[in-house]
Amino acid sequence: MNGVHSISKEWLTCDCPLACMVWEALLEQQDRLALFNTELISWFINNLAFSKGTQEGKHWSITFAVAIWYLWKWRKARIFRHGSSMGYKPIGHIHCTSGDIQHAMDNRAGAVNRQK
Q1: What's the pTM?
Q2: Model confidence band, residue 5 (pLDDT cutoffs 50, 70, 90)
């Protein structure tokens, strides 16, 4: 993946101040080190497959996916709209969206279990 539409490890880790702020807030120090020492695809797979919870009680894989989505959406807004129309409270937005997804998944799982 090259060009404007690709996402690079450098951009996700250090070239973007917003990405730095997001990872600093979401990742513990040893996990931030892993970000710099792991290939991008391996880092994605490891985090999407990881099932530990977060301090907020959400699955890490959901929080991670929402963080990546938020950063991608923010980047596209900056590139194609020559500035971002998104609010600059990414951590709150990431936690809120992650919570909504987790709640929907929990409710769906409960509904399926009640139907059995």
Answers
A1: 0.74
A2: very low
